[in-house]
Write a structure and sequence with these properties.
Blueprint (H helix, E strand, L loop, with lengths): L2 H7 L3 H16 L3 H16 L3 H6 L7 H15 L4 H5 L1 E4 L2 E4 L12 H9 L23 E5 L5 H9 L4 E6 L2 H14 L4 E5 L11 E6 L32 H9 L4 E10 L5 H10 L3 E7 L5 E7 L2
Parallel strand pairs: 3-4, 3-6, 4-5, 6-7
Antiparallel strand pairs: 1-2, 7-9, 8-9
Helix pairs in contact: 1-5, 2-3, 3-5, 7-8
Length: about 300
């Protein structure tokens, strides 16, 4: 038996939380609270228990199989692999999403984009629309497009809260769309249509009342791409040209051909890109251009309306 696993079997839940939280914090530069939460998550997964169980049974020893499972995951995390990829899931907007290395990891700041979209969807009486089905969706339905959907987090969060709206989720990656479809199945969300499309290329003449996107917006030579979780995430979903705005320029330029009258384009962007994105929106003829701040006070999303 490997020594590391043998030693792991001799430790209680309390010892693992104390010792491994400290090790993880040092290895990855995490604050003590974040490191402890991550170790708790790994223990919960290995033991198949709720967090409350860890609190109630600090003296509990791990079985041989539990210790092996936990230690394998812990070593991966020590190596910098994102915990969302290790566990294969991430919570977003109160929902649990499957994530794989084919998709970005949904982040709390992106919830702002969902909130901005939900604010702009009219209240629809439950009897007004039949449940959407396949290509025949939509005469008169309120239609929303999430471009570059990845795991489907944005599209599915919107669809979950507005089951009478017609949501489209597009991505150029077949692998990402497979993850998004599986998330829709797991969450029993049926009012989303998935389409393979490189931005607008395969959407034909379809128009939408809201277009949302969390596109790549990191400069290709940005050193952050070589750090932390970003090292493990798909580069094509992160980097966009020399200034990070290549994809946003394309999305904004072609938006008017795919928006209904009074339709909104809403975009997430980098922490220092709000002014540039607002200028692009205004230059494209969109009105009521604005930027919105996330919980950290950073202008994280911008948008405008086609009038």
């Amino acid at each position: 038996m490997p020594l590391s696993i043998h030693l792991q079997m001799q430790r209680t839940i309390q010892n693992i939380l104390l010792q491994d939280s400290a090790s993880l914090g040092v290895a990855l530069g995490l604050d003590s609270n974040t490191a402890r939460i991550e170790v708790q998550c790994l223990l919960q997964y290995a033991l198949k228990v709720a967090r409350s169980y860890l609190v109630a049974h600090p003296e509990r020893l791990l079985s041989k199989d539990e210790a092996a499972s936990y230690q394998s995951m812990f070593q991966r995390r020590l190596g910098g692999e994102p915990i969302a990829y290790i566990l294969g899931m991430r919570e977003f907007f109160g929902l649990s999403f499957i994530v794989t290395t084919a998709t970005l990891i949904p982040r709390p700041e992106t919830e702002l984009l969902v909130e901005l979209a939900l604010e702009r969807i009219p209240l629809l009486p439950t009897h007004s629309l039949p449940p959407p089905r396949g290509e025949g969706w939509g005469e008169g339905a309120f239609r929303i497009l999430d471009m570059g959907t990845g795991s489907g987090a944005i599209a599915l969060a919107i669809a979950y809260h507005h089951s009478n709206a017609e949501v489209w989720a597009s991505d150029a990656s077949t692998a990402a769309l497979a993850v998004a479809r599986e998330n829709a199945k797991q969450l029993a969300i049926t009012n989303v249509h998935f389409v393979k499309s490189d931005w607008y290329s395969d959407l034909g003449g379809k128009r939408f009342d809201i277009i949302v996107s969390n596109p790549p917006y990191v400069a290709a030579n940005d050193q952050h791409l070589l750090q932390g979780d970003l090292r493990f995430e798909p580069l094509s979903a992160l980097a966009s040209g020399t200034d990070g705005l290549e994809d946003i320029r394309l999305i904004v330029k072609q938006a008017s051909a795919h928006l209904n009258d009074n339709g909104w384009l809403l975009l997430e962007h980098g922490y220092d890109q709000a002014a540039q994105v607002r200028e692009l929106l205004q230059h494209a003829g969109l009105k009521a251009v604005f930027s919105a701040k996330d919980l950290s006070g950073i202008e994280r999303c911008s948008g405008g309306r086609l009038s």
